[in-house]
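Hi team,

As requested, here is the filled-out complex form for the calcium ion run. I kept the field names the same as last time so the parser does not choke. Let me know if anything looks off before we queue the next batch.

— J.
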Amino acid sequence: MNNKYKILLVEDELNICNFIRTVLEANSYHIIDTQKAVTGLSLLKSHCPNLVILDLGLPDMDGTDFIREVRTFSNVPILVLSARSNENDKILALDLGANDYVTKPFGIGELLARVRAILRTSRIQELDADSVPQNFTINDLTIVYDTRKITVADQEIKLTQTEYNIVELLSLHAGKVMTYSEIIHKIWGYSDFGSIKKLQVNMANIRKKLGEKPGENKYILNELGVGYRMNSAND
Ligand code: CA
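And here is what came back:
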């Protein structure tokens, strides 16, 4: 019991809440759940969970306000559950510091994979907060950070500085979706409408150079309307 990951689930729809609880408990997670954001905040402070699964549409507080509040005192990973229609809420949630999202309705396999990926990433960050990894590998793609060299099946890929910076950034957050504005801010340091286009052009060149055919997602996934996600090796 003690070495189980503790997950706080904040979800007001009782049948979804019970469903997620049942599935996660069957996968050896310890679940604390509540239907209210305010209770969620106090449970978070008293139980220090390893992860929060948060429904954005809550009756007593907006989910994005919940994230804003949590980030004033905690770095706990947050996985957001949101309806497909609320694209802007999803982007806002990620920009406010949520780690990932799952769109309702979701498959259990997807939810479990997201949970594992977030817990794995936060565990790596806890274990060596100071050490930067030497390289990154996904399928036949390898990035050597020291030399800023990328190879696919041992063939070196010639990227521009900006293209490399984008791939490196995504790889350092592999498994996590990064929003357009997050990427633009980190690569160019500013955000305007024109730079989304610039990012998309760079991305198209990157995918072409990596040899990704349209519709193929070996390395980088386009989360339509939201951002990009580098696959992580163990998904
Ligand atoms: Ca809800």
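Two things worth flagging: Residues 12-13, 55, 57-58 surround calcium ion (CB under 6 Å). The chain is about 45% helix and 20% strand.

Thanks,
J.
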